[in-house]
Structure prediction request, 140 residues.
Amino acid sequence: MKRVVTGLILIPVFAYVTLWAPQQVFLSAAAIVGLLCFREYAGLVANHNFRAPGLFGYVAGMLVLFLPLDPSLIFIVLIALLAMALAIASRDLSHALPFAAMLVLGVLYVFGCLRLRPKENAAMSPTQLTESAGCFSRSR
Prediction:
């Protein structure tokens, strides 16, 4: 029952944030959701007896989310290299590669999918965007 009530409260809030709120409110909500999702991901990593991605993961995720450029291969490789450098400082080197891999995967999985809508849709109003999404789903 608690989840149903939570859903009934949050559905109108997120509908407003995604469709009608000012861009700063939308960006703030995207950042909060990304941080909470990455926190959940870090907990899953820690439950598998690996060191959880720390502050670097949150910072790299915010960069992926808010950099004006598309995350290119060079930026992703840079994150991977920095993750490996951070992991090598670990006492147990057998966990260095899994730590770096989990950190990069988490950043790309959580924050990469939260990137803002594609450039061709950026000029569309929320009504046009929802109508085009509806047409797309019907045409499939």
Remarks:
- The longest helix spans residues 23-47.
- The two ends are 35 Å apart (CA to CA).
- Helices lie at 2-19, 23-47, 55-66, 73-88, 96-111, 126-139.
